[in-house]
Amino acid sequence: MNTGKKIGAGLLSAALVLGVVGCGNNEDKETNTTSKGTDTTTNSPDTSSSTTEKVKITYSMWGSAEEGSVTQKVADKFNASQDKIEVEVVSIPWESYMTKLNTQATGGQLPDTGMLKEDGVIQWSSEGMLNDVSAMYEGSDSKPLDSLAYKYQGKTVAYAAANEILLLYYNKDMFDKAGVAYPPSVLDKAWTWDEFVAAAKKLTNDKNGKHPGDDGFDANGIVQYGASVENLPWQLETWTLSNGGGFYSADGTDVRVGEDASIEAIQKVADLYLKDHVAPLSVGQTDDGIQRTIIAGTVAMATNGAWNVGTSLNTAKDEGLKYGVAVLPYMKDKVTLNTGGANVVFSQTKHPKEAMEWLKWYNSEENNWGLISSGIWMPTLQKWYTDEALTHKWVDNPNFPPYEEYKSAVVDYAQSSAARPASWFFTNYTTDFNTLLGSVLGDVWTGKTTAKDAITKNLDALKAAHTGNK
Questions:
Q1: Which residue windows does the record flag with biased composition (Low complexity) (predicted)?
Q2: Band of the pLDDT at 469, cuts 50, 70, 90?
Q3: I need a surface site. Which of 36, 83, 165, 436 has the fewest CB within 10 A?
């Protein structure tokens, strides 16, 4: 999911013709928190067999009226496929989506089911606003990847509507010109951090063609950088985990960003610009890293999410860009993060069983094929990663890099031990924490302070943000 940036309206509308919207994220927009509704208990489903009238449920989504209309057409296919449930889609503009849900929650008028931002799921669950959906896939021949389950107090309260992982993208022409081997697409051969930096130095050129470490290299006259590591706070968690630290403990109850391993990892990312001179300055404010680097032709390799294949790289490829995908380098442990916006069943519904039946159908890849085949989404169900015929159906198309390369660097990577859930799958108040951390690290990227000093001085505030205290 494009976490931190909204998919362009034109591209999204085109994808909706073939697929359907089911997840998204705008971390840079204001995040509203929920108020407790007047009825937060889970009601028993009304499944009486004495009536032939369909159970009517509502599904809320953020988007324009046009997008809502397209989604309703998909729901109409579901409505026509069986005689028990009828789904009505309610579209709400992104800007007012969470405000509207908060109002509905207070009045006990939430829809039966709907979309919810990644960073709001655990908070809503902690306030009794979401149903346990652990049983949604019981008896099914497949279920979403384990890393895509939102869990609160041991219960699954939502599944991501799409899968996304973090990858390493690279410009093949730049590598070929420099005579540098492509980064590995196979996890077993992943570069260490030192190997990554060494390759980046060979790919970094000043105006005289010199590289970092060469006599006379001009750090102020760089015309091509070797690497860029996206330093949006939520993506930085990858490197703290890779270095043996993290933002939080495994159960999400304690803050670990102040540990030496976490601080060291963040400083290494900063030093790509400050000391290694292989990366451009980035202050971690906007999620347009691939456009600013690989597509702009200024950087040879850059980290970011899998969604970039569909949102920007397909167009760039049509215009002549030769790019590849690889697994991320690693510090101590091999790590990539999963993410994906959630579809939830609200606790105020009188029809949780029917709501889950709709979501199970709606989340199936066949009903979101336009977004998957374009490369914006990745499938959520295990079988698309393990069944060779289904994997070929997904990946063997011109929108993707060569099959074996993409399968190894993305498909296999996503189901490997390296793939871990982003913290908002199990931790509350991640927006408050990430917002504060981004502010704290501002002077680290420019070298005005170190990661150790910045985090240590603000550790109490970061811990307070994690617990929801202001």
A1: 32-52
A2: low
A3: 83
